[in-house]
Amino acid sequence: MNEIIKVENLTKKIGRKTILDNFSFSIDEGKIVGIVGPNGAGKSTLIKTMLGLYHITSGNIYINGYSVKKDLENALKHIGCIIENPDVYNNLSGKKNIELYAELNDKSDNDYINKIISLVKLDNRIDDKVNTYSLGMKQRLGIACALVNKPKILILDEPTNGLDPFGIKELRELLKSINEQNNITIILCSHILEEMEKICDEIVMIDDGHFIDYVSIHELKNKNISLEDIFIEKLHGSKGQLR
User: What tens digit of pLDDT does each residue of 177-234 get?
Assistant: First the structure.
């Protein structure tokens, strides 16, 4: 498989505090990859550094072969993302929100917009104002907006926050469909291990700013090991090594 993201000796410091300490891993095209760790582990910092929202202290990140440090515009050209909450206009309809994103990205293709609307299953409510949407519907609308520029990579930070079990299941099925139908690489940030095990192909484990391991869900299942078990085992081991 083709390597679509490469994180190479990445360190991020804020003041004197090291938030990410010498991270190295790579992600192959077409995978669903979860970045998991306890609250405060550095998950969101890693994502924001990938997106150029935080300056890289040392090391580098390559996306589609482009350096985030030296060529951020091209590195981010084929990325769609939602950081924290979907950035949508509540007083406008769902369709108008998508059309605005399309105009901003010079992607005013009505056929493609309608395809996205069907993909996220908002056909029946797309002309309603967003302030009438449930949280799950807003999340799906945000994903539709993130897909407007036909990304190769979709990055979502804590996408299940606040969703009820039905909304979580609906989102999981949607992301799997996006991945399978369009071969889009999806990166998810979360501390909910059970959900990550259900949706992801591979997992990046981090804790307290340290890269712990990169594991395959398929391999864990073959060994009859749960993500929770291996995560706890790896974190206990890493804490012993880091003391």
Answer: 999 999 999 999 988 899 999 999 999 999 999 999 999 999 999 999 999 999 999 8
Q: Name the amino acid, one letter, at 17.
A: K
| pTM of the predicted structure, to 2 decimals | 0.92
Rounded (5°) CA angle 110-114-116:
115
Where are the chain's structural domains? Answer: 3-78+151-242, 88-150
Q: CA-to-CA distance for 146 and 166, rounded, in angstroms? A: 22
Contact between 187 and 154 under an 8 Å Cβ cutoff? The reply is yes
Specify whether the CB–CB gap between 99 and 132 falls below 8 A.
Answer: no
> What are the backbone dihedrals phi and psi of residue 206, each rounded to the nearest 5 degrees, phi first?
-135, 155
Closest Cα to residue 35, out of 46, 26, 24?
46
Q: What span, in angstroms and rounded, lies between the C-alpha atoms of 152 and 239? A: 36
Sheet holding 58-63, edge to edge: 66-67, 58-63, 3-14, 17-28, 210-216, 202-207, 32-36, 185-190, 153-157, 79-82
Does the domain spanning 3-78+151-242 belong to CATH 3.40.50.300? Answer: yes
**Cβ(170)–Cβ(139) below 8 Å:** no
In angstroms, how far is CA 114 from the centroid of its own chain?
23
pLDDT band at 40 (very low <50, low <70, confident <90, very high): confident
